[in-house]
Every structure is written in C-alpha cells, then in structure tokens.
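Lay summary. Proteins are chains of building blocks that fold into shapes, and those shapes determine what they do. In this project we predict the shape from the chain. Here is one chain we studied, written as its sequence of building blocks.
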Amino acid sequence: MTEHLTVPQAFALLLIEPDGRRAVAGQTFDAGLAGAVLADLVLRGAVSLHGKDVQVVDGTATGDPVLDAVVGVIAGSGAPRKATWWVSKLGRRPLRDDVLGGLVANGLLSEAQRKTLGIFPSTTYPERDGGPESLLRAAIADVLAARSAPTPFTAAVIGLLDATGSLRKQFGTVDRGLVADVTSGAWASPAVKAVLDELQMAVIVSVVAVTAATTATTSITS
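And here is the predicted shape, written in a compact code that computers can read:
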C-alpha cells in the first residue's frame, strides 16, 4: 500500500498524530512538505536539478493533483530557481491543505474542527485508516534496523525526516552512519540528495526567522 502514497503524503502521515495534531511546528511541517514534493518529482523524473536550479524535464501528468500543480508552477516560473527558493515558495499553508485534503479524500485521515484555548478555531486531521501508515512505519523501521535495503522512496522519506529533525522523534535512536548511507547511497539520486540538503538549510533558516520574530515580539511586549 505504501507504493500508492506520494512522498508528501507519506511525510504528512508520519507527522500527523493519531488525534490529528501535527508532531512538529507548522513551519517545519510546511517546509518538509515542500521538500517532499520536490523529492517526489525528482524520483518520477518530472523535474531535475541543473546545478542548484530546479527545472521541469517531463511535464507529463503524474495523476496526483498536488504534484501536477507544482510542476505547472515551476514550468511557468519564467526563471530558474534554486531548490531553497522553491521550498520557501511552496512551503506554505495552501500546500499543507492540499496534501492533507488529498489524504482525507483517500480515506486515510478525517477532518475535524476544534478550538485552541477554547477560543481560536483550528482544523485537525485525526487518523481514519491507519493501515498505510503502519506499513510505511514498518518499512522504514526495517531500513533503519538494517533488516532490509532502502528503496528510493523510503530513502527519500528517511532523508526528509532527518532534514526536518523528526527522524529520532518518530523512530527513536538511529545509527547516524546508516542514515548517512541511506540518504546519500546509490538508491538516493544526487538530485534527491541535493533537495534534502537544500531542505535542511531552508528549515534552519525558517526556524531562525521564527525564533527571531518571537524574541522581538517578546522584547516589545515585556
């Protein structure tokens, strides 16, 4: 069943708790989804990296509306852009809503409304069908325990979790040497590895920006 998931769907399933809340901050989740879309498109041969610039090499429809929309955006951008730029551009609420909406439409998640602090409305995505996520977790756990070799798909997902600082939280203590081999080995294309490197930098930049904004707000109000 995991082969029917896109990379962004797999990333989202792993980082949405059973009660529907995110396991990571919104900025990290959104940046990870953006990196996941780029990694998926690289694996499909739809886009590639020329130097550090992302370019469309095959505009054939993938059949997934989220991926196809991103291919269209990249193709129509009018100028070469680096992966870091695309992670920042794509890693926003609309992409999150589209990916999670697709999982709802496929019957894997449900959609619920709640209020944070009893005041602020928010949407959560409780688990509806945990089968695909269980299979995905088992496949990744087998790779991390060296019980099976990674596929390009599992290598990309592991790399995304690692780049967003989520791998250990989801799978416990990991062999860093093994993770490095998985994310840079023959099963991970150079383009995917480059996307993961760019994603890691984008996540660091976003976290620093949020921290700086929070510190500034605290200083003003204190």
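What the prediction tells us: The CA atoms of residues 144 and 178 lie 7 Å apart.
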